[in-house]
User: Which sequence fits this backbone?
């Protein structure tokens, strides 16, 4: 399977985690899918992703003590493969798995995704479950020394033929269900793992091989981060997207730090392979965590986040409860001019960055469409500018222009993508008053 024949642009969709934590159910997933189909699908949003612990019958019942209940009440088939909780996903009863829910999502013209944890359930090892296509049972392919430090559900899987058989059986089941997207957790590597013996590298390859055998095109997303820049080649070879940060939440310091991460990873964005800035914590958040709230980002910060994610061409996953979106947030997610920077022929790059400001550009290499963003990273309103000549020095945008030495001072038309206002360059420069933590993003020409 050539993974770059699909998902050639960054995946865009909704993920249940930021609002529901571990508790989302079938009715809620359907409601969000219905909303996406009506209000967002026409703008490129298509994935509906059920996040962590969909196999848990008692998820969230002890939330003040545990996010993930140790040895809780989970659903698993005879071959050690986790199944949706019929308590929360009634259509899965009778061994149907997620097939009915995936069929419903597909009927809306959308795609269906799930979160999984790296490895094999500890309960499968304890019960010595048989593994389809393997000579050895679950306890023999599991590695009890390879465990997640924050989730107690799984053991790592040994990199053997029988271990591969387990992942093959898992992906065969997901393909049968109609899964289009897998977010695999505890596998991307991060500060949690310093030992090069970490099994996540091998299990990423095992997942990749299993996807190639399953007969279905399935996006593979790796989590959590920060990913290792020195292994960029490996992420790109075996996955479609990988987290370049730990969990991202609605905090300005985390958003400002993302400029450093995007600078580091900007040259590794390509068709089918996307460094992932994590979810968009917009709208209503946190119900499953015990305290429903509005995003902590100001409107200016939300525009900054959307602009950077789109210029950089990160995957976009909405964390809000979609049915509660207000008109302003919906307008943020449906700005076609901004979303066009995500297209396959577009490339984003940073021009400059200091502690107080950053300048990015995004160019469509087919049409020549150029967008430039002035980001104010400081805590005070600022006047920011960049010269057209500075942009050309970095990328030779006007290389195909009829005049080889175009005069920088020749004024260009500007169109600000958020405010929908026209303007002009001034003496060959793009100049703007930018609010604190805000952005002005222009189409040039």
Assistant:
């Amino acid at each position: 399977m050539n993974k770059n024949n699909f998902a050639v642009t960054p995946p865009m969709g909704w993920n249940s985690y930021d609002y529901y934590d571990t508790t989302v159910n079938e009715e809620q997933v359907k409601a969000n899918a219905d909303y996406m189909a009506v209000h967002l699908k026409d703008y490129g949003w298509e994935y509906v992703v059920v996040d962590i612990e969909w196999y848990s019958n008692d998820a969230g019942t002890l939330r003040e003590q545990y996010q993930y209940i140790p040895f809780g009440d989970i659903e698993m088939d005879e071959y050690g493969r986790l199944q949706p909780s019929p308590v929360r996903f009634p259509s899965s009863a009778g061994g149907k798995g997620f097939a009915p829910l995936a069929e419903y999502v597909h009927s809306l013209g959308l795609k269906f995704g799930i979160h999984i944890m790296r490895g094999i359930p500890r309960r499968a090892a304890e019960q010595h479950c048989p593994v389809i296509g393997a000579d050895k049972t679950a306890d023999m392919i599991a590695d009890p020394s390879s465990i997640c430090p924050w989730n107690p559900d799984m053991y790592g899987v040994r990199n053997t033929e029988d271990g591969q058989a387990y992942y093959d059986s898992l992906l065969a089941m997901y393909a049968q269900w109609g899964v289009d997207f897998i977010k695999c957790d505890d596998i991307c590597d991060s500060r949690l793992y310093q030992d090069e013996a970490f099994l996540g590298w091998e299990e990423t390859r095992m997942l990749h091989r299993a996807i190639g055998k399953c007969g279905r095109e399935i996006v593979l997303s790796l989590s959590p981060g920060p990913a290792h820049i020195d292994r960029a080649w490996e992420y790109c070879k075996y996955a479609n997207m990988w987290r370049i940060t730990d969990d991202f939440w609605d905090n300005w310091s985390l958003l400002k730090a993302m400029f450093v991460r995007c600078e580091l990873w900007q040259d590794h964005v390509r068709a089918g392979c996307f460094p992932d800035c994590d979810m968009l914590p917009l709208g209503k958040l946190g119900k499953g965590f015990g305290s429903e709230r509005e995003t902590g980002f100001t409107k200016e910060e939300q525009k900054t986040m959307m602009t950077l994610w789109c210029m950089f061409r990160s995957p976009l996953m909405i964390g809000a409860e979609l049915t509660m979106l207000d008109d302003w947030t919906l307008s943020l997610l449906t700005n076609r001019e901004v979303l066009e920077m995500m297209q396959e022929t577009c490339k984003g790059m940073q021009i400059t960055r200091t502690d107080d400001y950053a300048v990015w550009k995004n160019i469509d290499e087919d049409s020549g469409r150029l967008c430039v963003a002035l980001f104010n990273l400081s805590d005070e309103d600022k006047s920011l500018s960049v010269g057209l000549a500075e942009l050309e020095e970095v990328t030779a945008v006007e290389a195909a222009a009829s005049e080889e030495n175009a005069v920088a001072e020749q004024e260009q038309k500007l169109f600000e993508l958020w405010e929908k206002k026209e303007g002009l360059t001034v003496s060959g420069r793009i100049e703007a008053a930018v609010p604190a933590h805000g952005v002005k993003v222009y189409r040039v020409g």
About this structure: The longest helix spans residues 161-177. Residues 393 and 427 are 17 Å apart (CA to CA). The mean pLDDT is 93. The radius of gyration is 23 Å.
